[in-house]
Sequence to fold (301 residues):
Amino acid sequence: MTDAYRRCTLCPRMCGVDRTAGQMGVCGMTDTLMVGRAALHFWEEPCLSGSRGSGTVFFSGCNLRCVFCQNYALSTVHDGVAITAERLGEIFLELEAQGAHNVNLVTPTHYVPHIIKAINYAYSHHISIPFVYNCGGYESVETLKMLDGLIDIYLPDCKYDHPDYAARYSSARDYPEVARAAIAEMVRQCTPIEWDNDGMMRRGVIVRHLMLPGRMSETKEILRDLYDAYGDQIFISLMNQYTPLPHCSAFPELCRTITAEEYDEAVSFAQRIGIQNAFIQEGGTQKESFIPLFDGTGCVK
Fold:
């Protein structure tokens, strides 16, 4: 497991740093596994949260570090507590015992070796709920292949269709091409879609797009590209919950929420081009209260 961290190339940043020696790349993390929260979460898509909640595990650090990050305390401030891979596996089992419909791994990319060990631990203890890989979409295909057969549901973002915006907001000019390749690999691994008897997703791909203010043309391009590529093989989750937080102040264009008219226009466009497998959000999602506290809940015995 340590070899993957010794010259880290787990994500497309290809930092090559020795995380075992305390060096940090873009994700900001060494090889110490840091988790901010592990608890039932009821604000995911309905087929993931259901009536009992999604068992979310929030990992500290992030390989994207978007300027508008909604989980800034986790991705950039690095709130969280240190645990072992075995403890992570125990957390998975505890979430199942609490009634979680699934184990939801949030921003997991830079800890894939730990996660593989923890999933195998959970499987050896007969876990039966699916694993969800909830990520920013900026993923290495080679790293995703390490997860083939272990992840049941992929939940990536598709943030940008234009390199200039990817560079401005996430310092990742290659994001559009990288995300397209990553999503293709996820679709290869986890389609066709499968459901359980309660209508909960057991296998599949849900691609999220968080609308940003003033980027309607890009939203439409992303919706069209995804539908042209995958049709009804995947679900698309169109999100209006963008919340401007204080750390966005250097980007005036991001200092407002999405209007109801903008969101209605995007939904109408999706319907017009034929998208049927989609999740849309109602009003009232643009609140900081939807951002959980990353205080180590559920992480320590």
